[in-house]
Amino acid sequence: MTLGVILAGGLATRMGGGDKGLRLLGDRPLIGHVIDRLAPQCAGLAINANGDADRWRDFGLPVLADDMPDRPGPLAGVLAGMDWAAAQGAQAIVTAAADTPFCPSDLVARLMAHAGPSGLCLAASPDETGRMQRHPTFGLWPVALRHDLRAALAGGLRKIVLWTDRHDGGVAVFDSLPHDPFFNVNTPEDMARATALLDGRA
């Protein structure tokens, strides 16, 4: 069984602060678009976010706070998701970022198909120049590695790819045409582009 965890813990500094995932794209919050795409691919979903969980209540999903001190970044959210999934009897989680409204509808299947020997896999896509870019917040994470991840975080590790490379994580490559499915909304200009994509104008 694979569960999905949407990472919504970013500070949204380039959007003026607050929860990016709750900003409207069309008639839905950004995270709502991610839920619509990820939910059919998983046995269940949760949201990783810190602070008052009540602000996510409209989505009816469990809210998982980081249990590592000093907000060490997305890996802490991955760990929270792995711990939650282990308690549900799941073997793995797939993560997605809350500000990526066009994430792939075959994300889970492709990650599972390209997982490394450890069961880890990250998504990747080519940028505008054709250079391959990994997307560390989109990954397949076996819960059996959660204790190793907790120890790595406690030891100061923060960069996701350093940890996945340590465990020979696989890479699932996604096409960037007609647009990169991992396009994320960081700025008001990005929101304008996302609106155009949603409306079919880009």
Automatic annotation (TrEMBL):
Gene3D superfamilies: Spore Coat Polysaccharide Biosynthesis Protein SpsA, Chain A
PANTHER family: MOLYBDENUM COFACTOR GUANYLYLTRANSFERASE
Keywords: Cytoplasm, GTP-binding, Magnesium, Metal-binding, Molybdenum cofactor biosynthesis, Nucleotide-binding, Nucleotidyltransferase, Transferase
Cellular component GO terms held in the UniProt record: cytoplasm
Description of how the protein assembles with itself and partners: Monomer.
Record-listed Mg(2+) binding positions: D99
Domain (MobA-like NTP transferase): residue spans on this chain: 4-162
Subcellular location field: Cytoplasm
Alphabetized GO MF terms: GTP binding; metal ion binding; molybdenum cofactor guanylyltransferase activity
GO biological process: bis(molybdopterin guanine dinucleotide)molybdenum biosynthetic process
SUPFAM superfamilies hit by this protein: Nucleotide-diphospho-sugar transferases
Superkingdom of origin organism: Bacteria
EC id: 2.7.7.77
Residues the record lists as binding GTP: L7, A8, G9, K20, N48, D66, D99
Species per Swiss-Prot/TrEMBL record: Paracoccus hibiscisoli
UniProt note: domains: The N-terminal domain determines nucleotide recognition and specific binding, while the C-terminal domain determines the specific binding to the target protein.
Catalytic reaction annotation: Mo-molybdopterin + GTP + H(+) = Mo-molybdopterin guanine dinucleotide + diphosphate
Record protein name field: Molybdenum cofactor guanylyltransferase
NCBIfam families named in the record: molyb_mobA
Family as reported in the entry's similarity comment: Belongs to the MobA family.
Keyword Cell membrane: no
